[in-house]
Specification:
The structure is a single chain. This protein is of the alpha+beta class and about 80 residues long. It has one domain: Ribosomal protein L30/S12 (60s Ribosomal Protein L30, Chain: A), CATH 3.30.1330. Helices cover about 45% and strands about 25% of the residues. Helix 3 links the parallel strand 2 and strand 3.
């Protein structure tokens, strides 16, 4: 299951704004992006990950990603952060 690492991570960011900040700071180790999220939300993150060399893992749905993060709503993106 690709979400196992995210579910067990001690530090993570949830949501596009927090994830973007983590990538910019250089603390994001792996970024998870929901395939069904709106492109205007995910495209800048994908471009940022590509330019920073951060691994991207695609998840089928926002609901699945939100559940893996332990929240009741969907999430467009999340990241595992360096401790």
């Amino acid at each position: 299951m690709p979400l196992a690492e995210l579910m067990t991570a001690k530090k993570k960011s949830v949501g596009s704004k927090q994830t973007r900040k983590a990538i910019e700071k250089g603390t994001a180790l792996k970024v998870y992006i929901a395939k069904d999220a709106e492109a205007h939300v995910t495209t800048p993150l994908i471009e940022l990950c590509t330019s920073q060399g951060v691994e991207i893992v695609y998840v089928d749905s926002m609901r699945e990603l939100g559940k893996a993060c332990g929240i009741q709503v969907g999430a467009a993106s999340a990241a595992v952060l360096a401790e």
